[in-house]
Structures are given as C-alpha cells and as structure tokens.
Write a structure and sequence with these properties.
seven-stranded antiparallel sheet, mainly beta, Jelly Rolls, seven-stranded mixed sheet, globular
Length: 278
C-alpha cells in the first residue's frame, strides 16, 4: 500500500497555478494499478481517496501507521465502490460480494480489510473514500438496485443524467460521508448545470467508463477565476468547498461523487449563474 499526501490550496493561491501545479495539487492520475493499492490523504477535510485492483492475489490493508492511529479506520468510516469486474471485500472476517457499481459502507472501527477479484482477467476496481467519523455504524452492502435514483437534467441543455445515492441518510446512514454514482444519458455531456458551490462541504470525483481517447474537461476555481483539469478514465480529483465544479465530456462517461463536511444535506448548495463565470 502506498499513501500520498495532498495539502490542498486556497482560491488565492490556486488562481496563479500553471497546469502542472494544478494537476499536482488536485488530480490523482494513477489510483488504479494492477495488483496494487494506492491511497491519497488530503488535508481538505481529511479525506482519503483510494484505489485497489486485486489481480492474482488479494490485497489486505487496515493498519493506521500512516495516519497515526492503531488502524486506518479507528476513527474513520469508508465507502467502497466497485468500478470493475466482480469481487469481494472481507471486513474483519465478514465477506461481501460486489458486482459492478455496488457500494460497500464500512463503519468506524474496522481493523482488517481484504479485497479480491473473482476473475483476475477481469479484475474488480475498488474506489474508496474515507473520512473522519464520530459514530459507530454497521457495515452495509448497497447494491445498485437498492440505491435511490434521481432523474435529472434537460436534453435541450445536454445534461440529462441519472444520479444514484448509495451512502446517504435515505439509503444507508453514515456519520459524515455521502457517496453516489452518476451516469449521463446518451448525447448529454454536462455533469451538472448550472455549476454550484457548497461552502459547508467538499467533494471528490472519480471519472470512469470513458473510452481511452475521451476526456472530461472539469471546470473548477472561483466563479470569477475559473480553471480546468483535463481528466482521463479512472482518474480522481479533489473539489474544495470554495470551488465550483462542473464538467463536459468528449464522449460517454460516469463518475463517483463523494462528499463530507458540516452536514449531509445534498441540496445545501449555492447555484452560480453561467453569466457570472469568468
């Protein structure tokens, strides 16, 4: 297991970054490596973003040496979304089978987590978000069929999409983590419209199901000082509370969104008019 660290940046600093610096501070390009597990610890709300691709052998983790606690989840909760082939996750001996787009909530206090793929030639790709937690809640597998589906968008504005809530008070309770998956309809490109801010919560995105030649142009920054990241398949990024977020793809794509902060009110947002973007 490898853990990187991102310190984050304020809006005044970020507006002066060149492309390389912006990508280094906010984008995680190599989360999913065959046979490995990669974690990134960000000081933005202490979120940990991870990716694991078990191939021939299972991958075990759970030690807290890197974060100064007895176990990784001694004081944390975690959501794990499977973006690949079928696989299993064992949490302290309790095993859960995850198909593509299933999500596992792992509650605070878990000690050993073991991930594996059913077929090494079609491996699972486990994407993880972990945040500090102040309550003990039971582990729970949330299948795609059990998620809460919201139909959003307008075909005339090229942003028709299906948003599925997985880790959410109305589906599977958590302490502070929210997690879900959004799919765009054929012919739609924008993942949200209009852009918005939520000062009380930060967010992380993982874009997936892109063709190798396609990219998502992810817009970020303050409304009056926008910046962008060009994002490929299975790359993730940090979206601080001070930043807008919206993006457009050159082809079909989906994304996992994860949030944490002061509340779990999904609609606690401040829309930004397109006319105010610079």
């Amino acid at each position: 297991m490898t853990m990187n660290i991102l310190y984050g940046a304020g809006p005044t600093d970020a507006k002066s970054y060149d492309t390389a610096r912006l990508r280094a501070e906010f984008l995680m390009e190599d989360l999913f490596q065959p046979g490995k597990m990669q974690l990134t610890y960000t000081h933005v709300d202490r979120l940990i973003v991870g990716g694991a691709v078990p191939t021939g052998e299972q991958i075990a983790f759970g030690a807290g040496d890197e974060i100064g606690t007895p176990f990784l989840l001694s004081a944390r909760e975690m959501g794990v979304a499977n973006l690949g082939g079928s696989g299993t996750i064992s949490v302290d001996g309790e095993t859960f089978a995850l198909d593509n787009r299933d999500v596992l909530y792992i509650g605070r206090g878990a000690r050993e987590i073991v991930v594996s793929s059913r077929d090494p030639d079609a491996p699972a790709r486990f994407y993880m978000n972990s945040v500090p937690a102040g309550a003990d809640l039971p582990h729970r597998l949330i299948r795609a069929a059990d998620s809460k589906l919201l139909a959003l968008g307008d075909a005339k504005r090229s942003n028709v999409r299906q948003l599925r809530m997985y880790i959410h008070p109305e589906v599977s309770p958590s302490c502070l983590l929210l997690m879900g998956i959004t799919d765009l309809a054929e012919g739609s490109v924008w993942n949200t419209m209009p852009p918005h801010l939520h000062e009380r919560r930060m967010e992380a995105y993982c874009y997936f199901d892109l063709a190798p030649e396609d990219r998502v142009i992810h817009l970020m920054g303050r409304p009056e000082e926008t910046r962008h990241l060009v994002v490929a398949d299975l790359q993730a990024l940090i979206s601080p509370a001070w930043s807008i977020h919206m993006g457009a793809g050159t082809g079909p794509y989906a994304f996992v969104w994860g949030m944490t902060g002061e509340n779990q009110e999904y609609n606690d947002v401040s829309p930004v008019a397109l006319a105010d973007l610079k």
